[in-house]
Specification:
With 446 residues, the protein is an alpha/beta fold. The protein is built from 15 helices and 13 strands. The protein folds into 2 domains: 162 residues, Rossmann fold; 229 residues, Rossmann fold (3-Layer(aba) Sandwich). The strands form 2 sheets. It has a 7-stranded parallel sheet with strand order 9-8-7-10-11-12-13, sandwiched between helices. Strands 2-1-3-4-5-6 form a 6-stranded parallel sheet, sandwiched between helices. The structure holds nicotinamide-adenine-dinucleotide. One of its GO terms (molecular function) is 3-oxoacyl-[acyl-carrier-protein] reductase (NADPH) activity.
Length: 446
């Protein structure tokens, strides 16, 4: 699935022409490659006066990651990232200086640069001024995402429950947002709470773990299988028997095993559990990726079109999760594929939107059930991703969908896979019941 417009405006004669005509030129996004540096340049750490100690702690961590960390702006530096620590900001005027300082360095931000805020979530007993300040940060992150150019992104980490900035889950989230792994994540705020988190913050985070990926024969699922295997997981690749050949190709490529299974089967959960335990001795991660669309305006929707979408995208996940929860697996990670259509709705997709919003609903409820045993349930909501599913969208609609996001392009399957690998990693234990959009900042609001 290629984006010919993005290719044309980034190469040769058509690049010059596009520049002259002032046409939008989607940047070529930097994606993770083994051995590449974490950021594209030095990292500037800023803070409001009250958050200096937290900023010091963040700066020490970044130094430990071998980054070139600075606390002051110098005109000659081309910044790879700016991290703004606002954890203790308690009144609106407190954020003025650090936020305007970000503004003053944006012209020196390198392409594919990063702005990451670290702030606190409003709490029920906050004073109005504290609540206003904390809430205000959200819109700074989102507005900045819409202003940045050249593939740069703006995302925020929001601490809940008195979690400290040095918590492994905060650091894992910071590393994800700074890295090329979050290439298509823009304008997002991820809440981090105080679950016990162990495991390394970095690469190979899934070493020795067993992960099940449904719908792994192609598209996003195949990319998830590859990415989890890259991070050290043994991957069980699940798909319908009709996709057997492609499924085997994915499993062979990642050194995993195949399980031919329709996820809507009554015994799907038990077969997944049995396969993982009998073949690999354990089960640590389940990624509910299998999904279908049967788009129709509601006025033309046939019962089978509604029912099949809900059965595959939602009911199958609920049924499989019941078996997984009953199995009492410590530290289980469940990541489910939602969609921006499940957040904003989409014409022709009442059935799909219902199923994907349902995924968000059950993820939040399942997160509470898993927390006691150190597990998490999170959802990833892709926007427009270049796959066979989206290649069937009519040309004009597809082209509009590509240009609407702040990053002015569709995402790649690997972008969704990287977000899932991050959420599945042990150090992300404090990220629970969240919906992470991988959409290039596609929607207004949310
Ligand atoms: P795709 O159609 O390319 O692949 C889906 C895979 O799921 C296929 O291999 C298919 O055989 C498998 N599958 C379908 N029904 C199944 C069943 N009953 N049992 C087992 N496997 C089954 O789709 P994709 O674009 O890779 O999407 C993957 C997921 O991401 C889906 O849940 C989709 O809704 C979601 N998503 C995709 C996009 C996008 O832009 N492509 C956007 C938002 C959400």
């Amino acid at each position: 699935m290629t984006d010919r417009y993005a290719q044309a405006v980034n190469s040769g004669f058509t690049k010059t022409l596009a520049k002259k005509l002032g046409l939008p030129r989607p940047a070529i996004l930097r994606r993770y490659r083994d051995g590449d540096p974490l950021t594209v340049g030095p990292v500037l750490v800023l803070a409001d006066a009250a958050s200096k100690a937290d900023a010091d702690a963040v700066a020490r961590t970044l130094l430990g990651w071998d980054l070139d960390v600075r606390r002051d702006h110098h005109d000659d530096v081309r910044w790879g990232a700016v991290v703004v620590v606002l954890t203790e900001a308690a009144e609106p005027t407190a954020v003025t200086e650090p936020v305007l300082a970000v503004g003053s360095v944006l012209r020196s931000l390198a392409g594919n640069g990063r702005v990451v805020t670290v702030s606190r979530a409003p709490a029920a007993d906050d004073s109005p001024a504290v609540a206003a300040t904390r809430q205000g940060v959200d819109a700074v992150v989102r507005s900045l995402g819409k202003e940045l150019r050249g593939g740069s992104t703006s995302n925020g980490i929001v601490l809940t429950d008195d979690v400290e900035v040095g918590h492994p889950s905060v650091l894992a989230t910071l590393r994800f947002f700074l890295s090329a792994k979050s290439a298509y994540v823009d304008g997002q705020l991820l809440r981090v709470g105080t679950a016990d988190a162990t495991g390394i913050v970095g690469d190979r985070a899934l070493d020795g773990q067993v992960a099940v990926v449904t719908g792994a024969a192609r598209g996003i699922g195949a990319a998830i299988a590859r990415t989890l295997a890259r991070d050290g997981a043994i991957v069980v690749c699940v798909d319908v028997p009709a996709a057997g050949e492609a499924l085997a190709a994915t499993a062979n490529a990642v050194g995993g095993t195949t399980l031919q299974l329709d996820v809507t089967a009554d015994d799907a959960g038990q077969r997944i559990l049995d396969h993982a335990r009998e073949r690999h001795g354990r089960l640590d991660v389940v990624v509910h990726n299998a999904g279908i669309t049967r788009d129709k305006l509601l006025a033309n929707m046939k019962p089978a079109q509604w029912e099949s979408v809900v059965a595959v995208n939602l009911a199958a996940q609920l049924r499989i999760n019941e078996v997984l929860l009953a199995a009492g697996i410590d530290g289980l990670r469940i990541v489910s594929l939602a969609s921006t259509s499940g957040i904003a709705g989409n014409k022709g997709q009442t059935n799909y939107g219902f199923s994907k919003a349902g995924v968000i609903g059950h993820t939040r409820a399942t997160a509470r059930l898993l927390a006691a045993s150190g597990g998490t349930a999170n959802a990833v909501a892709p926007g427009f991703i270049e796959t066979e599913m989206t290649s069937r969208i009519p040309f004009a609609t597809r082209e509009v969908a590509r240009r609407i996001p702040s990053l002015a392009q569709g995402g790649q399957p690997v972008d969704v896979a990287e977000a899932i690998a991050f959420l599945a990693s042990p150090a992300a234990a404090g990220v629970n019941g969240q919906v992470l959009r991988v959409c290039g900042q596609h929607l207004v609001g949310q």
